[in-house]
Design a protein that fits this description.
By secondary structure, the chain is of the alpha+beta class. It has one domain: Alpha-Beta Plaits (2-Layer Sandwich), CATH 3.30.70.120. It has a 4-stranded antiparallel beta sheet, with helices on one face. A hairpin with a 2-residue loop joins β2 and β3. α1 packs antiparallel against α2. The two termini are 29 Å apart.
């Protein structure tokens, strides 16, 4: 499993979170609003309020997830970072993986 962090404008956060879950690339997305981001733009600091999305996903979903996030994000170079999950609540991590596996199987069965 990997933890993906993606900062985005609050106006698109719900759209992105819903698309990630509906496409079965993650079992859930946590959205933390009101994050103050300071970055360097045109040689001067730029401060803006954003929402950070925390997405837990299996490693095999990384590339399609990155593609989806980039396609829905308004920035040309969205901040998308993947971190390994080295430990955590076993029952939660098991639920997250099993939820995606069972939903994927169900969706594939209905296509036959």
């Amino acid at each position: 499993m990997r933890l993906i962090m993606c900062s985005c404008p609050k106006e698109v956060a719900d759209t992105i979170a819903n698309a990630v879950v509906e496409s079965r690339l993650a079992a859930l997305v946590n959205a933390v609003s009101g994050v103050k981001t300071t970055s360097l733009r045109k040689e001067a600091p730029c401060v803006q309020e954003e929402t950070v999305l925390f997405i837990q996903t299996p490693i095999e979903h990384l590339e399609p997830l990155f593609e989806l996030l980039a396609s829905l994000h308004p920035s040309k170079a969205p901040a998308i970072i993947a971190l390994p999950i080295t430990s955590g609540n076993y029952e939660y991590l098991k639920w997250a993986e099993e939820t995606l596996v069972s939903q994927t199987r169900t969706n594939n069965s209905s296509e036959i």
